[in-house]
Specification:
85% helix, mainly alpha, 8 helices
């Protein structure tokens, strides 16, 4: 059981970082003015598909980590709590995939629900992490710190979403009327603004991995 949950938690990190790297690389084709509009459309489609790996990993990071901590007796909690966490996480995952597969007005309502869930999870992880660091609840220090880092990763993801807002009008204009110096500059500017946030997120993931290995009490 411990080995199974450990494997799941490791795969979360692998697919999160790997997927982010793939999306990061694909974005280079989107901003390349030497590429045709059709090629850049394909790059955007590939980016969107690859990005589902880190989105999925983010949602599964907490339930897999909590399951591993439960299996190793780092945290003590009833089995029904663990089951409830998995049910809620899988419901959130289904919501994320529904957004990916659907388009139009219906998807917008789902996106708002997803954003609300992210804020709730961010707040819960932050509170639990801070209480754990203060030794007010029974959490090992490294787990409390990892919870804070996961909350920070969710916050970084929300920031990236805000940074990407100007991208979509520029992309629609490029697809409908062809690439221009204006659309190229707008797309390149948005991608450039998101990259520092993504790099910081990668650093936080690596720090979380180091904490999981070192396990400071």
């Amino acid at each position: 059981m411990q080995s199974f949950f450990a494997l799941l938690h490791i795969l979360v990190l692998v697919y999160w970082l790997g997927g982010d790297l793939g999306a990061f690389y694909s974005s280079g084709f989107l901003v390349d003015p030497g590429r045709s509009v059709a090629e850049r459309r394909m790059a955007l489609q590939i980016l969107g598909a690859i990005d589902m790996a880190p989105r999925t990993a983010l949602i599964l990071a907490f339930p897999t980590g909590l399951s591993l901590a439960w299996a190793k007796f780092w945290v003590v909690l009833p089995l029904w709590v663990l089951v409830a966490v998995w049910v809620l996480a899988l419901a959130w995952l289904a919501l994320a995939w529904a957004i990916h597969l659907r388009h139009g007005a219906g998807a917008e309502a789902l996106r708002r629900a997803d954003i609300a869930v992210r804020w709730v999870v961010l707040g819960g992880l932050s509170l639990a992490g801070l209480l754990g660091c203060a030794r007010l609840i029974g959490l090992p220090l490294f787990i409390a710190l990892k919870m804070l880092l996961l909350a920070a990763c969710i916050a970084a993801g929300l920031l990236v979403r805000r940074q990407l807002v100007p991208l979509f009008p520029a992309v629609r204009e490029m697809f409908s009327g062809g690439a221009t110096a204006g659309t190229d500059a707008a797309i390149a500017g948005v991608i450039a603004r998101t990259r520092p946030t993504v790099l910081v997120l990668w650093v936080m993931l690596l720090v979380a991995a180091v904490l999981g290995i070192a396990k400071p009490i």
